[in-house]
Amino acid sequence: MLLFTIILSYLLGSIPFGLLLTRAAGLGDIRQIGSGNIGATNVLRTGRKGLAAATLLLDGTKGAAAVIAARYFAPDDVLVAGGAVFLGHLYPIWLGFKGGKGVATALGVLLSVSWPVGLFACVTWLLMAVCFRYSSLSALVAAATTPVTAWFFVGPHAATLALFLASFVFIRHRENISRLIAGTETRIGQKKIENAVST
Asked: Which terminus of the chain is more solvent-facing, meaning fewer CB atoms within 10 Å of its CB: N or C?
């Protein structure tokens, strides 16, 4: 059952909603726009806020769905399902293992494991975004807080999952971290002129 849970959760996480939605909207390949990422932040650079919101919602939903399904069918594998769906988003088999950065999917996982942990991460992201207008910085700070809140609200096993998610969020944001240090990171709502789609 464990292997079955891992495979199904991974395949669910591998669905590239950002790519599918932008192609369906006639915007071409999102990987050729902005940062080249398939996540909601890059979809927002197309100027289509609705598509970005849908991408965020669907990426988060698949994370939550994997955990909820595991809780119902394989309760001993809930945390494993959360890790597998997250890795599916980061390294989707359909895209040559080149996926998104995992923030929305991780949030969906955390909300379904423990809604207070997920809510705290959301509030942290929002406050950082309002104050500094960097999506990447907001994600990094929110991710960094989750192992502590998961330990407090749930326990060590959930904290281990949160640390796993946070570690990969940092790894996937290493280029953003370099740009933040250099002062060249793109702010929320700011388009990369050379790559952005005009609206």
From this structure: C
Please give the structure tokens belonging to residue 167: 């570690």
Q: Which of 175, 106, 114, 179 is nearest to 144 (CA)?
A: 106
Query: For the chain, give me the number of helices (H) and strands (E)?
Result: 10, 0
DSSP 95-124: GTT-----HHHHHHHHHHH-HHHHHHHHHH
Record the tokens describing residue 103, joined without a space: 């923030």
Q: How far is CA 114 from the centre of its chain?
A: 17
Amino acid (one-letter) located at 29: D
pLDDT digits (tens, 9 = 90+) for 168-190: 999 999 999 999 999 999 887 66
Q: How far apart are CA 164 and CA 8, in angstroms?
A: 19
Instruction: Measure the CA–CA gap between 40 and 72, rounded to whole angstroms.
Output: 29
Q: Kind and range of the H or E element at 54?
A: helix 49-73
The count of residues in the chain is 199
Per-residue pLDDT tens over the stretch 106-136: 999 999 999 999 999 999 999 999 999 998 9
Q: Judge whether 125 and 132 are in contact, CB under 8 Å.
A: no
d(CA 8, CA 47): 33
